[in-house]
Amino acid sequence: MQNNAIYSNITWNLRGRLYLLDQPRVMGILNITPDSFYAGSRFTHESEILARATRMAEEGVDLFDIGGYSTRPGAATVEESEELRRVLPAVELLAKHFPDKPVSIDTFRASVARQAVEAGALLVNDVSGGELDARMMETVAELGVPYILMHMRGTPETMSSLATYTDLIKEMTDYFHQKVHQLRQLGVRDIVLDPGFGFAKVGDQNFELLRSLGAFQTFRLPLLVGLSRKSMIWRTLSIEPEEALNGTTALHMVALQHGAKILRVHDVRPARECIQLFTRLYPKPA
């Protein structure tokens, strides 16, 4: 089941700094919001953000992902000015205190992406794949930063009603082909694919997607998976998000076996340990 793609040497250009993706990485989630679905990921004060980031660094985080707009199903709209107020100080804080840990800005707004990069972010993580702001892809091309391209339909408010597919994997593959071509035409070099677990996918669709992750290796681009404490875990197990760490770790191992290159997580140490065990089980080819 091992996929050697996770050991391929992919190099990002982080605004002139080279960053090697030669093995799976851990991306730590920092939600600067009051309403993210998992309460343990919500932070609002600078001291809380710094303390959490410090703990993540001690536990082996590779990258940070900062978001100021909850994208859980049915999440409330956040004005652009409020999103900027939340994320810019956090980006500056982490860029200053953790210069060796690249910061990703989780936003679908081009203006927020631009200002966050100017504040120190080095990647853009767009849940909408450019669908919610027509300027996003051109902005990323101008900024010259890696772009995390996620699959979603609709908006966070409507996505759950748009989860009807004739062939989920084929339709997602067609989506990624179109989007990657568009990005390449604009000159975006570094692209990461995120299949978007829970975003316009419901019930068994998420498990079908996890089983079929290897289908996206044809793009020869790194895969990011965001499974951490999601409803596909806690609803299946009839528990709450706060109890879903064990299930998260179980599915992280499956994702790694199917080629995941980046685990986007709330809990850094368990993800790091999962990667350590995976790489012991499946050593890097000589």
Q: How is this fold's topology laid out?
A:
Blueprint: E1 10-14, E2 17-21, E3 25-31, H1 46-58, E4 63-67, H2 80-97, E5 103-106, H3 110-119, E6 123-126, H4 136-143, E7 147-150, H5 168-186, E8 191-194, H6 204-211, E9 224-225, H7 231-234, H8 245-257, E10 262-265, H9 268-281
Parallel strand pairs: 3-4, 3-10, 4-5, 5-6, 6-7, 7-8, 9-10
Antiparallel strand pairs: 1-2
Helix pairs in contact: 1-2, 2-3, 3-4, 8-9
Structural overview:
- This protein is α/β, with parallel strands linked by helices.
- The chain has a single domain, classed as TIM Barrel.
- It has 9 helices and 10 strands.
- Helix 3 links the parallel strand 5 and strand 6.
- The chain is globular, with a radius of gyration of 17 Å.
- The two termini are 18 Å apart.
Describe the structure concisely for a colleague.
This protein has a single domain (4-281), classed as TIM Barrel.
Number of strands: 10
Give me the number of helical elements: 9
- Biggest sheet features: 8 strands, parallel
Which band does the percent of strand residues land in?
Answer: 15-25%
CATH architecture descriptor:
Alpha-Beta Barrel
Give the overall form.
globular
Order of helices and strands: EEEHEHEHEHEHEHEHHEH
Q: What's the rounded overall pLDDT mean?
A: 92
As for the number of domains, it is: 1
Fraction of residues in helices? 25-40%
Write down the Rg.
17 Å
CATH superfamily, by name, is Dihydropteroate synthase-like
* CATH C-level category: Alpha Beta
